[in-house]
Design brief:
The structure holds 2 protein chains of 2 kinds.
Chain A (H helix, E strand, L loop, with lengths): L14 H7 L16 H5 L10 H10 L2 H5 L3 H4 L5 H5 L6 H15 L8 H16 L4 H12 L1 H16 L13 H13 L2
Helix pairs in contact in A: 8-9, 9-10
Chain B lengths: L1 E5 L10 H13 L2 E5 L8 H7 L1 H16 L4 E3 L3 H16 L1 H13 L10 E2 L1 H9 L1 H7 L8 E4 L20 H8 L3 E2 L13 H4 L1 H17 L4 E4 L2 H9 L1 H7 L8 E3 H9 L16 H13 L2
Parallel strand pairs in B: 1-2, 1-3, 3-4, 5-6, 5-7, 7-8
The chains are: A mainly alpha, B alpha/beta.
Amino acid sequence: MQTHRKVKYEAELDPSFTKWVSTVPGGERIRECFQCGTCSSICPLSVYMDISPRRLIAMADAGFKEEVLSSFTIWLCASCYSCSVNCPKDIKITDIMYGLKRRAIEEGIFPSRHFAIPILAKAFANMVRKNGRATESRLVVSLAWRVSLFRLLNMAPLGIKLLLRGRLSFKKEKIQNKQEIQTMLKALEANR
Amino acid sequence: MKKYTYYPGCSVKGTAKSYEDSLLAVFRELNLHLEELPDWNCCGATFYMSIDEVTSFTLSARNLSLAEQYDRDVVAPCSACYLVLLKTQDYIKRYPQIREKVDAALTAANLTYKGSVKIRHPLEVLLNDIGLGELKNRVKKPLRSFKIAAYYGCQLVRPFMVFDDPSYPETMDSLMETLGAEAIDYPVKTRCCGGSLMGTMEDVGMRLNYILLNEAHKRGANCIVTVCPLCQFNLEAYQKKIIKKYNGVPEIPVFYFTQLVGLALGISEKELGLGRSIVSPDSLVESLSVVQATAP
């Protein structure tokens, strides 16, 4: 009978990923995780995750790079910090999730094409880089444009209500001294 | 008159306009002066942290640097802004490699940040700079008909826990009781609303907010009180859609805490931005004056 191996051999893992994850600010103590599961039990999103937070931490620490970076888990984390403040080992799980999101974006690894969360994050960052401020209405439109125009139709009734109540405007919000932001971004780029 | 630097953030200029309306009206009434930080930029919220951490801290450091020119505490009403400003201060203190990069970027733009700015949330300002005793004396219309579910969300209390408990905070409950309202027991008071997931994964966002609405209803609340633009938006603007999907929950008004403070202080509904509500608070607000008329 042929048996199918479901678990990776240690040789197939990525030790450089293990090393990297402990350098994410907040992730220094990841090796100390004793798998108590407090993070998974307290996380309000864990029921929607493909890999529970407890398991994800163990996998990141063991070097399961592909599996971790392509998980829905890292994107479902809404940064409520419940796990971070309750972790008995003081591991800043939320900050590790942020680190993993950044790494996934850097490497272009996502759970699916047209996956809305990183697309929105990028659109938001571009807007702030350019204008210094975010305009909520324009963000929604740009997300719909990239993900599905149907969403826009779906949101129109609410959009109209918000417009009528002065809670939505399409005027572009921006700061006066945009140059200052550009100068700072350039300095960061040069210092990378 | 006590003066503060006001860091509004993007949301209170948009979908959370009534938070700004009511915050400004209440502070004016209490003789607390808010001076808007000139040319403030976006804090980066949760999104920028997923793209580039150091850039996110640098953007925030610009605001801190601009604010440091004035010898005043900074008041940030939005929970995301409040957290990002605190987190920036914390990280540049604890990680010299981050501090170095942030400082270099600030210097390039002729800015500096020494680290002296104190970040405060308006809820904490009302408690500590005015005090519950003084607030009680100033109540003109006690909120006797209000049975409130005080919903704190996440980022005001976590991870920094500056003035309240990270899991079971009580400051807003005490404030509401001082105003004459009844604060119901609400164990989900710091359970996350999902934040921006409502915009990206609607089914998940709807479920998280349904839990919050249903719990408030089951425990007998007739309104929910919030401290955060995104919590209020998810719970209020999406409420009709949530109710349609999950039967059995009636409509429930969702206020900013500043709107209820304002009502109790006798500030007009218009000044408090109540007209901007999508779930009408009218019948509850009208019951307020009825209570007044029959009060001894």
